User: Fold Leucine--tRNA ligase from Natranaerovirga pectinivora.
Amino acid sequence: SFTYNHKEIEKKWRDNWDKNPVNVETEDKPKYYCLDMFPYPSGSGLHVGHWRGYVLSDVWSRYKLLQGYYVLHPMGWDAFGLPAENYAITQGVHPAIATAENVENFKRQLKEISAIYDWDKEINTTDPNYYKWTQWIFVKMFKEGLAYEKEMPINWCPDCKTGLANEEVVNGECERCGSDVTKKNLRQWMLKITAYAERLLTDLDQLDWPEKVKKMQSDWIGKSFGAEIDFDVDNNEEKIKVFTTRPDTLFGATFMVLAPEHHLVNKIATDDQKESVEDYVFKASLKSSVDRMQDKEKTGVFTGSYAINPLNGEKLPIWISDYVLADYGTGAIMCVPAHDERDFDFAKKFELKITQVIAKEEDDVNKELKEAYTEDGIMINSGVFDGMKASKAKEAIINYLEEHEIGTKTTNYKLRDWVFSRQRYWGEPIPIVHCDKCGAVPVPEEELPVKLPNVKSYQPTGTGESPLAAIEEWVNTTCPTCGQNAKRETNTMPQWAGSSWYFLRYVDVHNDKELVSKEKAKEWLPVDMYVGGIEHAVLHLLYARFYTKFLYDIGVVDFAEPFKRLFNQGMICKNGAKMSKSKGNVVSPDELVNDYGCDSLRLYELFVGPPELDSEWDDRGIDGVYRFINRFWNLVIDSKDKNVQPTKEMEKIRHKMIYEITNRLNNVNLNTVISGFMEYTNKLNDIAKQEGGIDKETIEKVITLIAPFAPHIAEELWEITGHTDSVFNTSWPEYDEEKMKDDSVEMPVQVNGKVKATITIGLEEDKDSVLQKAREAIENKLEGKSIVKEIYVPNKIINLVVK
Ligand code: ANZ
Ligand code: ZN
Assistant:
C-alpha cells in the first residue's frame, strides 16, 4: 500500500539523486546559469529565512532543467571577513579552522534543501588557489593605473579598527557592527571605480533587474550636470573654483562656503579670523561625512575674505562650513540661499543676504521668502537674463561663462573611488612590495598567491597597521625589480574583493593557468539568473559590475555585464523583525523538515508571501501545506490504476492549469503558483469524485508541474505511476490555448432587441438546436404574439422578432 511517508521518500530520492544525478550534460542541451549570492559561512548556521532564496533559485534551476537546459547551479563560500577574525580573537581558534568547521556545518544544512548544487564546483574565497586570482586582478588593476595609493581621511570604524568604503557606511554607522564611523587619515589603497562611472550608469539600461535596484545604483553613481565657475578673491591672488548644478542662479549668489579641508582655507583666512578657523577645521575633522550632511543645525566660521561675483561684481563673504564636502565637486560652493535649502538655513542662521533670482511669476517679486524656492520659474534680478525661463537660462549662462573664460560646462558624479585596504588579518594580502628605490612594486604574476601567513595575535592594532605588520619574516622580502631589501604591503583586501568576480570562477574552478578559460566563459557566461537579497544593491552588485567591466577591458571575458537577470527575494520576518540570531527570533528548519518533510518546507517557504516582499513567518502555516501535499498524494494514488478516460472537462482543466502555473512561474509569482496547485488539486479532486478518478495524462502533467517545487514526492509518484526514469528527464508540459476554452457559453436571448432570457449552448452547437432552445426559453413571455423573424449570429446575438 502507498501512504505518504515523507521521511522514507525523501531519504530514498536523495540517495538516488546522489547516485544518478538528474542534471546531466549532453552535447545538444543549451546551457543555463542560475546563481545564488554565495553565503558567508557564519557560526550560527541556516534558519528558515536563509532557505527562502535557496529554495527559489532551486525551483528556478529545476524548471530550466525541465525546459531542456543543462543547468549550472553552484555553491561556495564568501569566507574572509571580520566575524571569523573576531571569533579567533575571543576564542583563540584560527580563522581558517573556524571557517572550515562552519563550511562543513553549512553544507550539511544546505543539503537538507535538496537543491541541485554541483558540489564539484564548490569555491572558497579563502583558498589560496582561489585568492591567487583575486590578487591577480589587483595586480592587473595596478598595472592599468586603477589601483593606487593615497593618503587621505577615510571612514574609520573604531570598534572594528579598520577603514571602510563609503558603501560600507550606512547612516553614519559601520555596516558590520553598527558603531558610529569616524574619520582617520591613513595611507590607503584605492580602486579607481570612478573611471567606470559613466559605463556603470548607462549599461544599467540593458539589465533585466528590478527597477528599484537600478535606481539605487544610478542614485549612488549620482551624475549631475552643471558648471565649474572661477571666482576671484578680493585682495588675493587665489581663485576659488566652485561646482554648481544651478549656474542659472549665479546672480543670486550672496556668499561662498569652502569645505574645512579645502586647500585654500589657510591662504584665505585673515589674521583676525585664523584662530577660530583653525579651531573649526579641527572639530570638523572628527565628524563622518554622513553626519556632516545630515546635521540639522548648520555651523560655520567666516574667513574674513571676500570673493567677487563674476557677473555683477558683488562682494561675497567667504565662510567655511562642514556641510560642504571636501571630496565632492571642487570642495567649494557658491551659495544661493534664495534657491537652495541648505544655503537658506545657513543664511538665516548667520544673517547673510538673500537675493531671489527666480520667481514663479514675473511679478511675484520682493516678497520675503519663507523657504528656498527650488522650482523652475522666470529669471529676475539677473541683468540681461531677466524674463528668461530659468531652465533655459542655465544653458545661456554656461555659454556666457565659457565665452568669457570664467567657467566651463561640467558633469559630476557622486561615486567616489573605492577605499580598498583593510587593517585586518583575515583577508587577501595585497600583493605589493614596497621598495625604497622602486616604490610600490607588484608581486610578479607567476609568484602569486601571496599566502596569508599564520600570526599569533589577530588583534587589530588600531594604529592603522594590520596584524601582519608584526611578522617580520613575512614582511621583510626583496624587491621583485631591483632585488634589494624591501617590505611587503601589510594591508589586506576588503571582503568584497573575493565576491566581485566569483561567478566567473565557478565555470572553470580547477583551472590553474587562467582565471577562467575563454571557452568555458563563452559556454556559460554571463549569469542568466542571479538570486539574492536587496541589501547588496550598491555594494556587491556595483563592485561585481565594475570588476566585470575591467576584466572585459583587459580581454579576460567578452561581456561587460555579469548578471542578465536579477531577482531580489524579500526577507523572512518573525514578530515584525528580520529573522536573525541577534534578534533572537530564529526558526530552525531542522524540526520542520523532520515533522513535515523538505517538500512541505520548500512549498511553505514560497507560499508565505510574494517572494520579492518581506514576509512574516508563521510556524502553523506549514500545516496547511502539509495537508495539501497529502491531498495531492491521495489524488494521484487513488487514480493511478483506474485507467480513467479523459473527459473534455479534464482536458480543459489540464491545459488551463499548465498555462497558469507556467505564467506565474515565469513571472516568479511563486506564492501564487503554490495557491494555484491547491486550487487545481481541489478541482481535479471534484472531477475525480464524479468520474472515478483522473486520466493518466493529467496525472503525468500535474506531477511534472510540481516537480521543481516538491521534487521528492514528484519522483516517488512518477515511479509509482509506472515510470522507470526520473521525472526530470521529461519535459515541461505545454498547453494548447484552444483546449483551454470553455465548451459551452451563456447567450442572452433578445425579444425585439430586449434581453428576456439566457440560455447555455455548446460551442459547436448547430443553429437549429440553438434557436430551439431560444424559443423554449421565451415561450411563456410572448403574451400572445408570434415569432416573425429569427436572427442568429453565432456566439454574438440571438434576437427573435415578434408581432
Ligand atoms: C549653487 C546652487 C544654487 C546649487 C541652487 C544648488 C541649488 P548635486 O545635484 O548633488 O550634484 N555642492 C557642490 N559641491 C558641493 C560639496 N562639495 N558639498 C556640498 N554641496 C555641494 O548638487 C550639486 C549642488 O550641491 C551644487 O549646486 C552646489 O550647490 C552643491 F539654487 O550651487 B549648487
Ligand atoms: Zn626595488
Summary: The longest strand covers residues 147-157. Residues 670-691 form the longest helix (22 residues). The domain at 743-802 is CATH 3.10.20.590 (Ubiquitin-like (UB roll)). The mean pLDDT is 93.
